[in-house]
Amino acid sequence: MTLAADSLDTFYTHGFDAVIDVRSPAEFAEDRVPGAINLPVLDNDERARVGTIYKQESPFKARKLGAALVFRNAANHIEQRLSHHDGAWRPLVYCWRGGQRSGAFTWMLREIGWRADVVQGGYRTYRRLVTACLYDMPLPHRLVQLGGYTGTAKTALLPRLARRGVQVLDLEGLARHRGSLLGDMPGGQPAQKGFESDLAQALHHLDPARPVVVEAESSKIGQINLPPALWDAMKTAPWVEIAAPLKARARYLAEAYEDILADGERLKAKLAPLRFHRGHALVDAWETLIADGDRLALCRSLAEDHYDPAYRTSMRATAPQVLHREETAALDPASLDDLADRLAERLHTIRI
Fold this sequence. Notes:
- Its EC number is 2.9.1.-.
- With 352 residues, the chain is of the alpha/beta class.
- It has two domains: 2-132, Rhodanese-like domain (Oxidized Rhodanese, domain 1, 3-Layer(aba) Sandwich), CATH 3.40.250.10; 139-349, 3-Layer(aba) Sandwich (Rossmann fold).
- 53% of the residues lie in helices and 12% in strands.
- It has 17 helices and twelve strands.
- A hairpin with a 2-residue loop joins β9 (220-221) and β10.
- α11 crosses α16 and α13 (264-271) packs antiparallel against α15 (280-292).
- The model has no long low-confidence stretch (mean pLDDT 95).
């Protein structure tokens, strides 16, 4: 049997015991159906080899080699990764377009006695649905942007608000980036398609009838572009703004960016392009603070002389509707908890 998916909800509520992606590891790494495991029937090199033979020599020769490799790899998965499943196991299988790779593997699973189904159209069906959700249709959710100068702990406030019953969408968490010049995180960012899959799934679990708080961002987080449906909704969303003293923000930044600040040479390289925007004298001063190990003074200057002017320019250009402005004297965990209490109370009463 085949699973015909006409909405993303089909992939989120399919009811199968497992979802198996039989594409190559490289294809799987870029993006996958949520919850899928990778049991490739052709690895990266094998897929490239079969493709080359298909184009340069003979489609028949390529299919013959491909079949041998597919069944050999499938047998290995059955003997190892799948050997513990009983006869009632129900897996859902897909490849790139629901063709030979998933068809062959699903046939083998059924011959054993497992109740395997294949996704009609494969990964391409899933990807078309994600694209339609994020590129072709307006977002049904009502957003509230959480704004404020850099260092006002907006990212740290999101999980606190979620624990208080506020719907939140953590874009920096999904993009695995802190959303600024120094925002790189260990492990790097996902592929654009992978980010969009995670975003579509996160949106699916949010109630469109209730406001969703999202941190104010530009249209790009690191190397990730925000899809049009989301960005259009963010541009017109009202704001709730956080305000904190420069001293508190500098202290918070010094702690939040400790990993970046610890590598002086890497930090200098990241700041070097700002010579064309902020001038050589300021960047030279930053490099002196890096050499002296004065992280607090560096973070204060980065905020005061770089991030804050950029924020003010952006606010003048976009002129968002600010519904509420919440101030905090400090940004330590206890102060953030108190701030989250006050914000949650306000957000629960907001009507947009």
